[in-house]
Specification:
This protein is an alpha/beta fold. The protein is built from six helices and five strands; from the N terminus they run αβαβαβαββαα.
Amino acid sequence: MYPAELVKPMREDLTSVGFEELHTSEAVENAIAKEGTTLVVVNSVCGCAAANARPGAKTSLQNPKKPDHIVTVFAGVDKEAVDAARAHMVPFPPSSPSMALFKNGELVHMLERHHIEGRPAELIAENLKDAYNEHC
């Protein structure tokens, strides 16, 4: 587990734009079960989270259509919440960072680490915007 002081700015990178942090499996279950669309970002300390995933997720919200709910769990910190979120992302293998869009509790779009790593934030944002335009 990573120290709280290390991950604080990485958490705030998303919470500062409205993402709700989830720390328990119950919170994850409640968030995903909500009516409408929910974007779940599995945050991470890795470089591709800082350079690509978080900026891409934030930029994606600058779209006429966007998720009703935006939440985040932190890999290597909130194990219970991350495990619960990943259970809803099956058949995709666990990866971080990653992003999943749910509609009425059903997984409708997934970005795994290999879709994020080495790709510019703008491309990630466009991928998410396409998913929002289709599902939101």
